[in-house]
């Protein structure tokens, strides 16, 4: 059977069964190393920041000990660069023996002992992006079994060094292989990000039947420019992307860089606000040992997390865009709404903004809404549908409002 017919065959098989692992009914929350710790393998000079069991255990300790876990941040994951340069004698992936002396099973056990879940990384190709052993087509079942035996709860499958036809075969095949292990393993696919993120090359119906989350676009980097570019891409392509998301399957605009080096406080607010409105996975990539109180306060904001984890799982949309302001709206359960007003200006002082519930297209409750400023933790007032809601939005800043119906 050629690769192509095999792909079609698996595509059809996936269509009948659809991804039905019951996982990630709300966007996943947790921590991943990649944006912050990259492929730092130099444990002799930088023992606290190299990719190692020491780092993963330290982050698990922080997640469990510093209030993260009880708010829902439960995944602690590996990304690239955890592996030894070669598979073992039985052909299985194995960790670098110096950086992971206890092995991955013991590490997953440690993470589970903290009440957390453990994620791992591989790449559908001969090697990973950083040239460690990957998962080519003929290793998919072996690797799925290995991950299940280790107690893995989430697999991110990257897409370096394989072509489109291999991806079309491999991503569904790994989904099937994970299912057949009998262990519930959430499945994160980088597939669309390697295909430009848009139809006709990307079939979002098939993705939703194959994966629990998927990276659509560029990697996050530690800068406002990259963050704003990613936000704009999700807005510009929302007609395709927004309907693809829902309980069990999420668009993934990549990791939170709050607590790192590149964003101001106002810009950090933009990322948390937009990620909540986009129903995006909340995976932090920062050093939880040294994170500032300010950054922690943003990421641990209970109303923000309530919005992110809303049970309807509807991704928000950008409803207006002018020279300075973008308005994003997400409908929530029980007639509630989240509205983010983003000021993309880079000059001057906080800019006044005025709207009404009606102008936002929020008419559901004729008696009006209580409105809260989520990130300042302020009650803004009670507003009838035509009452003017005013605010000021800092340059490269945001106001995130939560509207609760009086009905
Ligand atoms: C595998 O797929 C079947 C059919 O969709 C589903 O009922 C089952 O729960 C899945 N098992 C796991 C472990 O994901
Ligand atoms: C894709 O890669 C596979 C495996 O390396 C190869 O056999 C196949 O010919 C490639 N297909 C295309 C269209 O390049
Ligand atoms: C996308 O995938 C779905 C599910 O496999 C399939 O029914 C549909 O025909 C595909 N759409 C296109 C345009 O190929
Ligand atoms: C803000 O967005 C508008 C509309 O896309 C654009 O014209 C303007 O250049 C942007 N401003 C900045 C500072 O990025
Ligand atoms: C709100 O304003 C619109 C337009 O001015 C008007 O038609 C409508 O009756 C007003 N609604 C309420 C509840 O005041």
Structure, briefly:
The chain is of the alpha/beta class and 407 residues long. The protein is built from twelve helices and 16 strands. It folds into two domains: 306 residues, TIM Barrel, CATH 3.20.20.70; 89 residues, Immunoglobulin-like (Sandwich).
By oligomeric state, this entry counts as single chain
Termini distance? Answer: 61 Å
Tally of separate domains: 2
CATH topology of the largest domain: TIM Barrel
Compute the number of strand runs.
16
Instruction: Quickly give the structural class.
Output: alpha/beta
- How many helices? 12
Biggest sheet record: 8 strands, parallel
Instruction: Compute the CA-based radius of gyration.
Output: 22 Å
Q: Could you characterize what this model shows?
A:
This protein has 407 residues and is an alpha/beta fold. The protein folds into 2 domains: 306 residues, Aldolase class I (TIM Barrel, Alpha-Beta Barrel), CATH 3.20.20.70; 89 residues, Immunoglobulin-like (Sandwich), CATH 2.60.40. The protein is built from 12 helices and 16 strands. An 8-stranded parallel β-sheet has the order 7-6-5-4-3-2-1-8. Strands 9-10-11-16-13-14 form a 6-stranded antiparallel β-sheet, with helices on one face. Strand 9 and strand 10 form a beta hairpin. Helix 3 packs parallel to helix 4, helix 5 packs across helix 6 and helix 10 packs parallel to helix 12. The N terminus is likely disordered. It binds 2-acetamido-2-deoxy-beta-D-glucopyranose (5 copies). One 2-acetamido-2-deoxy-beta-D-glucopyranose binds next to helix 6.
